[in-house]
Design brief:
- This protein is of the alpha/beta class and about 350 residues long.
- It has two domains: about 180 residues, D-Maltodextrin-Binding Protein, domain 2 (3-Layer(aba) Sandwich); about 140 residues, Bacterial extracellular solute-binding protein, family 7 (D-Maltodextrin-Binding Protein, domain 2), CATH 3.40.190.
- About 40% of the residues lie in helices and about 20% in strands.
- It is built from 13 helices and 14 strands.
- Strands 3, 4, 5, 6, 7 and 13 form a six-stranded mixed beta sheet that branches. Strands 10-9-11-8-12-14 form a six-stranded mixed beta sheet.
- Strand 4, helix 1 and strand 5 form a beta-alpha-beta unit.
- The chain is globular and about 65 Å long.
């Protein structure tokens, strides 16, 4: 899936320096604090642009007390290295897409399918509450602090020809996906075809696959919109959503003066606001308008219709996720039920 994107946070005067690839993490130059920011994404990526916007706000609110040394394009930390790199202090702060490979087992509950999120903004609020409310969820962020956790655009099903409204319509269809979605598509009766995202264009163009599962922004970036002409939309939360944000080394955070910490906390949603603004205006709206002008079909499912899809994956995906957590001694059932309770507004 498009790596578009990307997470974050006692008073001490001990400033640690880590010389990595010519970059010194967390430096104090007189009264100025310089934090090293790393992203595996290029400077033009929305998640980087949003981070730089937020940093300008932080610099302004701290009257220049905080500055940032920016290293992008994976020059300091690759996507696979970023979480451990921030934990160990290679860099102070970075963009981050929440990934189960980094130990986020309970946190991955938010990526379960067909959760009927009311909106991305409400999902952000629920996710943050879940982290604060359940110690085991928060514990997975060991060594780092997350800021501005933001749900990514919702994933939907996009087909070359066939209109899909029910799981029966998807049965036997070959769908391009990345690895983590294979079990979901099997549960829905489809045939998952694991293809690197950069090869989706050729797979769709040549009919190797019948459709794909992803969000509109990715389809626009990889120029796939003209290869699929029917889109099944699963409400504001889509089939599912991932999460990203900014993460900060815990020791770096603890070394910041309290007034600076307050600025980071109080202004963090500037990141989300800018990210969603860029995504909506430059990618999502543009993608949907592109489809409309070419006469594409949009199949918009009602909540009742989505429930049919949800029931189909409840046992093989959701209940299995809970069992896997419990086997590891983690309160999967508790976390899932608390999340559902908040989604339903109870």
């Amino acid at each position: 899936m498009k790596r578009f994107l990307a997470i974050l946070f006692s008073m001490s005067l001990t400033w640690l320096a880590f010389p990595i690839k010519g970059v010194m993490a967390l430096e104090k130059k007189g009264e100025v604090i310089e934090l090293v920011f790393s992203s595996s994404n290029p400077p033009v990526a929305p998640i980087v642009q949003s981070a730089l916007h937020w940093f300008e706000v932080v610099k302004k609110e701290t009257k220049g007390k905080v500055q940032f040394k920016v290293v992008t394009g994976g020059a300091l930390l690759t996507e696979q290295e970023v979480f451990r790199g921030i934990q160990s202090g290679v860099a102070d702060i970075a963009t981050y897409i929440v990934d189960e490979r980094d130990g986020f087992v309970l946190n991955s509950v938010i990526t379960l399918p067909f959760l009927k999120w009311p909106s991305r903004e409400k999902a952000n609020e629920i996710y943050e509450t879940l982290i604060q409310r359940i110690p085991e969820v928060k514990a997975e962020w060991r060594g780092v602090l997350p800021f501005a956790l933001s749900m990514m655009p919702p994933n939907h099903i996009h087909m070359r020809k066939k209109q899909v409204r029910t799981p029966a319509d998807l049965k036997g269809q070959k769908i391009a996906v990345t690895g983590k979605y294979a079990s979901l598509l099997k549960a829905l009766g489809a045939i998952p075809v694991e293809v690197p995202i950069q090869d989706w264009y050729y797979a769709l163009e040549r009919g190797v696959v019948d459709g794909c599962l992803n969000h509109f922004a990715v389809l626009k970036v990889f120029q796939l919109l003209d290869l699929v002409n029917t889109h099944t939309l699963f409400g504001p939360g889509g089939v599912n959503m991932g999460a990203l944000g900014i993460i900060m080394n815990e020791k770096a955070w603890e070394s910041l003066p309290k007034d600076v910490q307050e600025v980071f906390v109080q202004t963090q949603r500037e990141y989300t606001r800018k990210l969603y603004e860029i995504e909506e205006t430059q990618y999502l709206q543009a993608a949907i308008e592109h489809c409309k002008t070419r006469g594409h079909t949009f199949v918009e499912l009602s909540p009742a219709e989505i429930t049919a899809w949800q029931k189909l994956v409840q046992k093989p995906i959701v209940e299995q996720w809970i069992k896997d957590c419990e086997k590891k001694g983690l309160p999967g059932k508790k976390v899932y039920e608390e999340m559902i309770r908040m989604i339903e507004g109870k």
